């Protein structure tokens, strides 16, 4: 993740020279031809996907679609995946892949039992893979186990937003935090932070981190890597 000096993951600071320099460092670490992290995909919350890729479009559902087969749907195994946490099946996808910072990824939707038959039929029609993880709430362990078994994902990057990040950390499902801190801020009081507790998903129980490395990047940015300690 990239943040401002005050830990924000969105905002006007991103358009400053210091924000641009930090953004370039972030992309080189995580994406492109030779990234530091050799991951097989990245995980995003539903709001992050709507903001960046599906733009709050309504999915084109056919409520008369025939009943889809039970369980998961593997449309493609490509080696790079955009894993979308969308428990209720709300995202209005138009295609089954996306390209971000020079990296093309097949879309895998992580649904729960709350997603409708019509939504699953919609995903099948677009060739978008999906897995079912949990009935009423996301089952983290099931989601990660299925991503490994069905798609060969060994290393998965938590790609935000703050709600997704904090819920995975509190669930004990994140080993490492890696952030590029821009030498910029904008003081906004309505932008999301790197970690955001959300009622029903997470709370404000504190977590400690073990610093592994700190590196200065262009534009005064700092790349910080921490291991996650157990929640106290
Ligand atoms: N600077 C960066 O590096 C960076 C990176 C990524 C994102 N961002 C920005 O961050 C902003 C969005 O962040 P956000 O924190 O508001 O939202 P978010 O984490 O992207 O999405 C939150 C939603 O995802 C689903 N979700 C997340 N965790 C879940 C869990 N444990 N169990 C079940 N559902 C879960 C829920 O969807 P439902 O509401 O459908 O139930 C939840 O409301 C965007 O503006 C995005 O552009 C910045």
TrEMBL record:
<comment type="pathway">
    <text>Cofactor biosynthesis; riboflavin biosynthesis.</text>
</comment>
<protein>
    <submittedName>
        <fullName>5-amino-6-(5-phosphoribosylamino)uracil reductase</fullName>
    </submittedName>
</protein>
<dbReference type="InterPro" id="IPR002734">
    <property type="entry name" value="RibDG_C"/>
</dbReference>
<feature type="domain" description="Bacterial bifunctional deaminase-reductase C-terminal">
    <location>
        <begin position="117"/>
        <end position="198"/>
    </location>
</feature>
<dbReference type="InterPro" id="IPR024072">
    <property type="entry name" value="DHFR-like_dom_sf"/>
</dbReference>
<dbReference type="GO" id="GO:0009231">
    <property type="term" value="P:riboflavin biosynthetic process"/>
</dbReference>
<dbReference type="Pfam" id="PF01872">
    <property type="entry name" value="RibD_C"/>
</dbReference>
<dbReference type="InterPro" id="IPR050765">
    <property type="entry name" value="Riboflavin_Biosynth_HTPR"/>
</dbReference>
<keyword id="KW-0521">NADP</keyword>
<keyword id="KW-0560">Oxidoreductase</keyword>
<dbReference type="GO" id="GO:0008703">
    <property type="term" value="F:5-amino-6-(5-phosphoribosylamino)uracil reductase activity"/>
</dbReference>
């Amino acid at each position: 993740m990239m943040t401002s000096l005050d830990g924000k993951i969105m905002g006007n600071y991103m358009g400053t020279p210091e924000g641009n320099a930090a953004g370039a460092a972030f992309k080189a670490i995580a994406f492109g031809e030779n990234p530091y992290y050799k991951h097989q995909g990245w995980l995003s919350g539903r709001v992050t996907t709507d903001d960046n890729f599906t733009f709050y479009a309504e999915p084109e559902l056919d409520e008369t679609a025939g009943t889809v087969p039970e369980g998961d749907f593997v449309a493609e195994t490509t080696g790079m995946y955009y894993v979308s946490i969308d428990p209720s099946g709300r995202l209005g996808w138009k295609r089954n892949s996306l390209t971000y910072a020079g990296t093309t990824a097949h879309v895998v939707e992580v649904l729960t039992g709350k997603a409708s038959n019509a939504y699953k039929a919609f995903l099948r029609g677009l060739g978008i893979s999906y897995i079912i993880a949990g009935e009423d709430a996301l089952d983290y362990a099931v989601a990660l186990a299925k991503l490994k078994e069905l798609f060969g994902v060994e290393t998965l990057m938590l790609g935000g937003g703050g709600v997704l990040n904090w819920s995975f950390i509190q669930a004990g499902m994140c080993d490492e935090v890696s952030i590029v801190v821009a030498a910029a801020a904008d003081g906004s009081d309505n932008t999301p932070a790197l970690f955001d507790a959300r009622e029903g998903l997470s709370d404000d129980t504190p977590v400690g981190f073990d610093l592994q490395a700190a590196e200065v990047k262009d534009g005064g940015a700092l790349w910080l890597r921490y291991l996650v300690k157990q929640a106290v």
